[in-house]
Recover the amino acids of this structure.
């Protein structure tokens, strides 16, 4: 693992839980990167 801060992110779902909202997921990841986060943890207990 590289040094730095990593965050556990939520998994955004489409209305009605029909599947992952990939556009919203991309926005979340971009926000993390733009604010200096080195990596994200998906599929954690956060959701």
């Amino acid at each position: 693992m590289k040094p730095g801060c990593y965050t556990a992110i939520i998994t955004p779902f489409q209305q009605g839980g029909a599947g992952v909202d990939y556009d919203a997921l991309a926005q979340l990841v971009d926000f993390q990167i733009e604010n200096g986060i080195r990596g994200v943890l998906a599929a954690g207990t956060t959701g």
Observations:
- Residues 22-34 form the longest helix (13 residues).
- The helical segments are 22-34.
- The chain has a mean pLDDT of 88.
